[in-house]
Amino acid sequence: MTRFFDVVLSFFGLLFLSPFLILLFLVGLFDTGSPVFRQERVGRFERPFILVKFRTMQKDTLFVASHLSHSSKITKFGSFLRKTKLDELPQLWNVLKGDMSLVGPRPGLLNQKELRRARKVRGVFNARPGITGLAQVSGIDMSTPELLAEIDAEMLKRITLFDYFKYIIMTVTGSGQGDAVKR
To answer: How many helices (H) and strands (E) does the chain have?
Structure first.
């Protein structure tokens, strides 16, 4: 049932937000010279996929989890994108393609072995990863892999259609902190 809403909402989101996405792309072009960030992430059934986001860090930043990156790598425009969660908008394409859902566990990096192990044990990889979920609106990030996997598994066991829309609304209205970055 949620796949239907994923397809409809991501399609219309991309359609109606396209002028805004183009504007963010152009500003990002002046900010970093390369406004779109593509990174391999772990998807459903542990299959890798390419996640797309707006770039928030300098181009030379290593591909590590946000909590392992230093805040000095975040650009001024990138900081704005992160605070407003606008950096996540290109992931609507991942949702439309079927790599992701709007709501689900945030996809981790291939090198996050502790998180992958904890999620595998709890069956989290049976679901599509999401743009947002219970962990994100609760301020739980990837720096606590066991807790994150536990919250992800709990969300997947209990999620209702009401929760699906609640997490989306909470994300759009600014609930949660997103991924922490070292100061």
So the answer is: 7, 4
CB 35 within 8 Å of CB 22: no
Query: Binning pLDDT at 50, 70 and 90, where does residue 72 land?
Result: confident
In this structure, the strands spanning 48-54 and 130-132 are unpaired
Q: Structure pTM?
A: 0.89
* Structural element, H or E, at residue 168: helix 161-172
Q: Is 32 in contact with 59 (CB distance < 8 Å)?
A: yes
Query: By C-alpha distance, which of 162, 146, 54, 167 is closest to 101?
Result: 167
Query: What does the pLDDT look like over 6-54, one tens digit per residue?
Result: 999 999 999 999 999 999 999 999 999 999 999 999 999 999 999 999 9
Q: Measure Cα distances from 99 to 56, 129, 149 in Å.
A: 22, 8, 19
Axis-axis angle for helices 2-32, 161-172 (nearest 10): 20
- Are the CB atoms for 178 and 86 separated by under 8 Å? no
